[in-house]
Automatic annotation (TrEMBL), chain A:
Belongs to the binding-protein-dependent transport system permease family. The keyword Transport applies. This is ABC transporter permease. It comes from Pseudomonas typographi. Residues 71-259 form the ABC transmembrane type-1 domain.
TrEMBL record, chain B:
InterPro entries: AAA+_ATPase, ABC_Ni/Peptide_Import, ABC_transporter-like_ATP-bd, ABC_transporter-like_CS, P-loop_NTPase. Its EC number is 7.4.2.9. This is ABC-type dipeptide transporter. Belongs to the ABC transporter superfamily. Coiled coil: none annotated. CDD domains: ABC_NikE_OppD_transporters (cd03257).
Amino acid sequence: MNLPWRSIPLWLGALCLLAIGVAALAAPVLVGSDPLAMVARPYLWPGQNAAHWLGTDMLGRDLWSGLVYGARVSLRIGLEAGVCTALLGLAIGCLAGYFGGWVDNLLMRVTELFQIMPSLIFTLVLVIILGPRVDTLVLGIAATAWPNVARLARGEAQRLAGMEFVQAARVIGMSEARILWVHILPNALMPVLAMLAMLVGHAILTEAALAFLGLSDPNVVSWGSMIGAGRDVLRTAWYMTALPGLAIFFTVAALGLLGGALNDWLNPRRGGLQ
Amino acid sequence: MSVLSVEGLCVRYAGQQNPAVDDLSFSVEAGQTLALVGESGSGKSTTGFAILGLLPAQAQVRARQLAFAGQNLLGLSENALCAVRGGGIGMVFQDALSALNPLMTVGEQIAEAVRLHHPVSRAEARARALALLKRVRIAEAQRRLDEYPHRLSGGMRQRVVIAMALAGEPRMLIADEPTTALDVTIQAQILRLLADLQAEAGLALLLITHDLGVVAEMADRVLVMRHGRCLEQRDVLDLFNAPQHPYTRQLLAACPPVGSPV
């Protein structure tokens, strides 16, 4: 189980994410102003004013401050939604794959029910009904993204259920619940972990898409809400959408690189583990 | 009294015409080894799983008697069966690599098996795991405790599997092709280990195999199976000296005698 230390994508992705993560954590140190406060003349272009080097938006809010504080919200939503998606999918997939029979049938029909709905529209409806807040955004994203994870985990659990160590566990008198917890879950977790980076990237993109449509938590700044706000002045002041857009691009690209490298490492079918 | 006594065991899979096991009767005494012999698909393994109640739901198991240490196993609740599995009857499998969880260390897995049947602390379970590893004669047991299965050789893995089977201090072992996946020298070591353990604890051993060499070395009694039926059941010397059933004679003839030109 050696990490591919020489892998360039791994390093590039990890360093990029680390930088963004540190910026998000150190937001109060990095920027002096509240991202929602009007601190200067509106429509300042980047580089026009040294005190606000990335410029200001149409209400005179500092864009650099918005980007750094927005990283907090976007990363938080991405991480929370990604982890929720993984846990939900893992639980349902493992139950279905391990027990098989009617449990499998029932859970897989439910999974398909979720899969046949267009996911963005489904998330949209959920967020509209529940009201756009950070926690409802997380819920809305996780509620539509889990079926893929469930299918992956189900396949793994089915494979594992046929393995002799599971049979051996039954033979030494382990209960079904304990077998699921000790043998199935940890083994099915590996491929899902490899998928986690992609899930986080997907969640950040979905949050941005929702915010672009005006569905973002009005009390906090996220990259998505910055894009949503800048949409109206796209032709005259395109930098207001381009800057948070670039932030999303780099974050999701870094997650993609990291996810690919982790997949190579953790995926047993590529001969990484063992 | 026999440790295990089986009478008229029938197993039938739903939708199949012929039963997988048909009217099988045998018993195993403490300290004795009974070998179930037969070709693939003759119902040997099915018999082993039927005893432990581990066949899938579509298999129908009936028997006039299926008793372990005087306790009827048919109709036991799942919880009571869990106590018998491992606690009363241990089982050793053919493929020792896939019989171990790749993500848990050897020590953790044996300790887990210990704690299933004995309410002991983690430290105590670990100490017992170490004792079990020593009992199955693994070299450098202390170091092996914290190693993952893929770092061990095939023979060592099989020893670990046997240690796990012994964790619940069973009175009987079912060994399903325990040496088939191993090379010849390791086979001999594992068979000797099983024989020693049997002598130490007076274990009853049900040995499932197609290897007549193993049978000659280990068994007291032999039961020859074909198509789920018992063809003959006799003491091992009688069987090798004067096989009665034509199929047994064929089976013995298929094995080249020692010293014959290849």
